[in-house]
Amino acid sequence: MGFSEVFGQEQIIKNLTMAIQKDRIAHAYIFDGSDGLGKGMMAMAFAQAIVCKNFRQDVCNACAACIKFHHNNHPDIMIIEPEGTSIKNKQIEAFQQDLQRKPYESRKKIYIIQQADQMTESAQNRLLKTLEEPPAYAVVILISINANRFLPTIRSRCQMIKFHRLGEQQIHVFLKEKYGMSSEASKIYAAFSDGIIGKAIQLKESPDFLEKREAAIGVIEKVLEGDPLSVFPMLEFFESNKEDVYELLDFMLTWFRDILILKETASEDFLINLDKKTMLEECGLRIGYQQISHIIKIIERTKQDIKANVNFQLVIENMLLSMQEV
């Protein structure tokens, strides 16, 4: 494990490393940010670093503490996960009872509470008592996606650490280096990751992702043929893939964005659908700048209308017909 396994959060790693080296580890942290940014991995890496006997810039992975960590049986590291949908009052009570016992082997005793922002209010009030007067050896790490769900009194007693989304280029490089992916493939996954490295990995492992992209390209091809009768089978396609509609529309947006880039620069450096360059060039010969810009606006307006709960079938039908009329 160790900090070296966490990608893209270098400043957080630097701050936590310095806290260990200078013996300024806080009693409580909130690791806050979207799912997939590495909060859980960072918490585990931090816990291992605290108990490692030979920590310098990172863990040694060789001492007795590290070996126990890797076997998930270090007595001074505990992980608390929700029972059902939330952390319950009884779980915090059990945590407090365990906290009364001093560390077995390390100077610190680390508790990682997963999905801590899903904690019930009574559980938060109970936790607050511990955060107000924690033992000197206690380190509590609260993992959350929305720190505003915590009571203000809990937030004020924790060191807040915000996990930020990464740049598309960072994820592109990570996928190439970590998984040996081609530049074409890594660009696609990075573009649709929303800056979340966990989502990029999830997309890479999803057998449906590229199939959906092919389906979206098929819709674009039919639309550009201009046959009004083709709208009805396409409507059925969107209805049957309603749960994935935003992803499908994003595929379509990136397609027309790529055509614009090719028209303006004749360069493939910034293409997302790099593996489809020939198809993009062929599409670009059939439509002009104004048409592409108008189609992009139509798709973006469609996304807004769906979010506003406008009738789904009506919105999609209007989008397809409007694109054909451009």
Explain what you see.
- By secondary structure, the protein is of the alpha/beta class.
- The protein has three domains: 3-162, P-loop containing nucleotide triphosphate hydrolases (Rossmann fold), CATH 3.40.50; 167-196, no CATH class; 207-325, Up-down Bundle (Zinc Finger, Delta Prime, domain 3).
- It has 15 helices and five strands.
- The chain has a five-stranded parallel β-sheet with strand order 2-3-4-1-5, with helices on both faces.
- Helix 4 links the parallel strand 2 (77-80) and strand 3.
- Helix 1 runs parallel beside helix 2.
- The longest helix is centred in the C-terminal third of the chain and has 21 residues, at 245-265.
- It starts with 9 loop residues before the first helix and ends with a helix.
- The relative contact order is 0.09.
- The mean pLDDT is 92.
Question: What topology does this entry show?
Answer:
Blueprint lengths: L9 H12 L6 E5 L6 H13 L12 H7 L6 E4 L8 H11 L9 E5 L7 H12 L5 E7 L7 H4 L3 E4 L5 H12 L3 H9 L5 H9 L3 H17 L5 H10 L4 H21 L11 H10 L2 H19 L4 H14 L1
Parallel strand pairs: 1-4, 1-5, 2-3, 3-4
